[in-house]
From TrEMBL, chain A:
Protein name per Swiss-Prot or TrEMBL: NADH-quinone oxidoreductase subunit K
Topological category with respect to the lipid bilayer: Multi-pass membrane protein
E.C. numbers: 7.1.1.-
Gene3D superfamilies: 1.10.287.3510
UniProtKB/TrEMBL annotation, chain B:
Keyword vocabulary terms for this entry: Membrane, Transmembrane, Transmembrane helix
UniProt entry tagged with the keyword Membrane: yes
UniProt xrefs under NCBIfam families: NDH_I_L (TIGR01974), PRK06590.1 (NF005141)
Transmembrane helix is among the record's keywords: yes
The protein's name: NADH-quinone oxidoreductase subunit L
Gene that encodes it: nuoL
Parts of the chain that traverse the membrane: 30-50, 86-104, 116-137, 143-161, 182-200, 212-230, 251-269, 275-297, 309-335, 341-358, 379-398, 413-434, 455-477, 513-530, 611-631
Main location: membrane
Domain NADH-Ubiquinone oxidoreductase (complex I) chain 5 N-terminal residues, every copy: 68-120
Annotated localization: Endomembrane system; Membrane
Organism of this sequence: Chitinophaga nivalis
Length: 105, 632
């Protein structure tokens, strides 16, 4: 399959992620949208890696390793982020980001 | 002996340090002793050195103390040069200086202990600076002394600093001198640029091959002459000297007689090679000199302050010295410096004695008839007047006659103008003498009761100076009297280098006798005229009109300077303060500050705590960065 398909899918996923982050008010959904963006990028990396490897230009492992690296970081981030969101919910009984403005100034 | 030359300036410096640092706890007698003693000791050493320098075949000796400035190829050692010229000046400065110090111990006795010590410290520092000036073996050393006397004159003129007008006089002297000093300094820089050295023999050796009226030499000569104009109070930089009368009278005597104002003459005499090679500047000097001599003498005719008359007379006499320098009669100029130091110190100290007796009164219209109250002061003052007027036999006659004879040989017009100045000198000096000492007393009853002869510490210097004023002229007895001119012969080696370039003028002896006869006769006529007019002077209280009023107001030169220089400068300063500084720079600086504050106030609102907005800003930021990265 040509690589363009993957690119378009990745753009679509990334844009859905961006829009979700910008427009949704539920912190957990924003979180999921962030994951969506990360995965869009991961998809792109795997696709390009495969493309260059087929062309015999470079070793295919590099970009794929990055994918795992991003997954690990994302998992760690989610662990911290969900904990924060849980604490916020316990205090406010809401995960609406628009009411989370206590830290302003 | 020459190796000990550093002692001469060092001793007054020591006196300055002792009196200056110990001013709170030294007694007056100790201060006076240290102040006068150090200068007297310097005088004794100067005499010994003079005797050494007088010996035939004496060559100038340079005593290097340490390396002062070394930059690239330029070496300026801290060195003293002892030769005929500096030895003579040392003698005059320390000699007259000692007498003035001794006189001051009595004159300043009414000051508080601390002021008294401060006064002597300044006086010592003044002498120290002047000695550095004449002893320096290069132009930079000379400049150090040059600035030193400028500073000390400022300190001493403003000695009674609680009086604002005295402070203004001090500032005027300081600023006017700075104008001249700038010229001198530029001259030195020019010299360094052209010759790469400032040491006298090297400069002269490099100047000589350049030839007559070389533009470089003309520029150096003119710039240095600007310095001389300032220090020696020549047109147009003379107005500070009469104002310098604000200082204590012995200070006036010191500034006017032996030190400071003679620095310009010393400098030009020292640089005679440069000036002889620049005849165009010599002409300028002669013209400015004779103009100053006439101009100041005309002002002196109508002054009523005893010290102001003497001050203008100094300006006028300095004009004569510059006339002599301008016509190439260097030794005549130095001769007049010397005799003038004697009789002008005498006159100033005499006027100080009068002022002392009158309880601070300086207006001669309120004096009169002092002859019988203070005989010593009267007789010595008379001697001073006779000497400055140029009565045959007194010192001033010989020196002034030598100048006039040289002027005649150079250009008869200069002679006629010079003679006119001499006649005015005789007239105003005897006007001063007759109004002050003869007739009847016109002061208050209290003052009359208080009149007394001054104490010995004041009269003794007067007597010594009177003797010098009479006999001082005999060292320069001209050749028409059938003797060798001692002073001219003594100074010959100094001017030997410039002699080949000078155009020699020789007067026949009969012409010289004739000139002497004419000037003597006319001077005597002037004195008799003054006697007839002022011997029985009565104060009429009538205001002067016409020319007399203009003269009384010093040709309104101060007002003119005020209008064309001081006022515009004030206006300019005001413009810079109000418009450039306050409206321009301050506004800009404060504007930037308040602009940032205002901006901060506004941008602060961006942090509204809305997570959505933050994320939005982040995404926008990322997009902007991508775009920038893509475009570049």
């Amino acid at each position: 399959m040509p690589v363009q398909y993957y690119i378009f899918l990745s753009i679509a996923l990334f844009c859905i992620g961006v829009m979700g982050v910008l427009m949704r008010r539920n912190a957990i959904i924003i979180f999921m949208c962030v994951e969506l963006m990360l995965n869009a990028v991961n998809l792109l990396m795997v696709a390009f890696s495969k493309m260059w490897a087929d062309a015999g230009k470079i070793d295919a492992g590099g970009a794929q390793l990055f994918v795992f690296f991003i997954m690990v970081v994302a998992a760690a981030e989610v662990a911290v982020g969900l904990a924060i969101i849980t604490m916020v919910y316990r205090n406010t009984h809401s995960v609406d980001i628009n009411i989370l403005n206590r830290l302003k100034n | 002996m020459i190796n000990l030359v550093w002692l001469v300036p060092f001793l007054p410096l020591l006196g300055f340090l002792v009196n200056g640092l110990g001013r709170r706890f030294l007694s007056k007698s100790l201060v006076g002793f240290v102040g006068s003693g150090t200068v007297l000791a310097a005088f004794v050493i100067s005499v010994l050195m003079f005797l050494e320098a007088k010996a035939p075949g004496f060559t100038p000796q340079v005593v290097t103390l340490f390396d002062f400035i070394t930059v690239g190829t330029l070496h300026i050692p801290f060195a003293f040069q002892v030769d005929q010229l500096s030895a003579l000046f040392l003698l005059v400065i320390t000699g007259v200086g000692t007498l003035i110090h001794i006189y001051s111990t009595s004159y300043m006795h009414e000051e508080s202990d601390e002021s008294f010590a401060r006064y002597f410290a300044y006086l010592n520092l003044f002498v120290f600076s002047m000695l550095i000036l004449v002893l320096g073996a290069n132009y930079v050393m000379m400049f150090i002394g040059w600035e030193g006397v400028g500073l000390c004159s400022y300190l001493l003129i403003g000695f009674w600093f609680k009086n604002p007008s005295y402070n203004n006089a001090a500032k005027k002297a300081f600023v006017m001198n700075r104008i001249g000093d700038l010229g001198f300094l530029l001259g030195i820089f020019f010299m360094i640029m052209q010759f790469g050295t400032v040491t006298f023999p090297e400069v002269f050796a490099k100047a000589a091959p350049l030839g007559i009226n070389n533009p470089t030499l003309v520029a150096i000569a003119m710039l240095m002459f600007v310095g001389a104009m300032g220090k020696s109070a020549q047109i147009p930089l003379y107005t500070w000297l009469p104002d310098a009368m604000a200082g204590p009278t012995p200070v006036s005597a010191l500034i006017h007689a032996a030190t400071m104002v003679t620095a310009g003459i010393y400098m030009i005499a020292r640089s005679n090679v440069i000036y002889t090679l620049a005849p165009s500047i010599q002409t300028v000097i002669a013209v400015i000199g004779v103009a100053t001599a006439l101009f100041a003498a005309s002002i002196a005719l109508k002054q009523n302050d005893i010290k102001k008359v003497l001050a203008y007379s100094t300006v006028s006499q300095l004009g004569y010295m510059f006339l002599a320098l301008g016509v190439g009669a260097y030794s005549a100029a130095v001769f007049h410096v010397m005799t003038h130091a004697f009789f002008k110190a005498l006159l100033f100290l005499g006027s100080g004695s009068v002022i002392h007796a009158m309880g601070g009164e300086q207006d001669i219209r309120k004096m009169g008839g002092l002859k019988k109250f203070m005989p010593t002061t009267h007789w010595t003052f008379l001697v001073g007047c006779l000497a400055i007027a140029g009565i045959p036999g007194f010192s001033g006659f010989f020196s002034k006659d030598e100048i006039l004879a040289n002027a005649f040989a150079n250009n008869p017009v200069l002679y006629v103008l010079g003679l006119l100045g001499a006649l005015m000198t005789a007239f105003y000096m005897f006007r001063l003498y007759f109004i002050t000492f003869s007739g009847k007393f016109r002061g208050t009853h209290d003052q009359e009761h208080h009149l007394h002869e001054s104490p010995a510490a004041m009269t003794l210097p007067l007597i010594i100076l009177a003797l010098l004023s009479v006999f001082g002229g005999y060292v320069g007895l001209p050749e028409v009297f059938g003797v060798k001119n001692f002073l001219a012969t003594y100074l010959e080696p100094i001017f030997a280098q410039s002699a080949p370039f000078a155009t020699a003028h020789h007067l026949s002896h009969s012409t010289e006798w004739l000139l002497m006869g004419i000037s003597s006769a006319l001077v005597i006529v002037m004195i008799l005229l003054a006697r007839g007019k002022f011997a029985a002077y009565e104060e009429t209280g009538k205001e002067n009109t016409g020319l007399a009023k203009v003269l009384e107001n010093k040709w309104y030169i101060d007002e003119l300077y005020d209008a064309i220089i001081v006022k515009p400068l004030y206006e300019l300063a005001r413009f810079f303060r109000d418009v450039v500084e306050k409206a321009g720079i301050d506004k800009l600086v404060n504007g930037i500050g308040s602009g940032v504050q205002w901006g901060g106030q506004k941008i602060r609102l961006v942090q509204n705590g809305q997570v959505g907005f933050y994320i939005f800003a982040m995404v926008i930021g990322m997009i902007v960065l991508f775009v920038i990265g893509f475009l570049l």
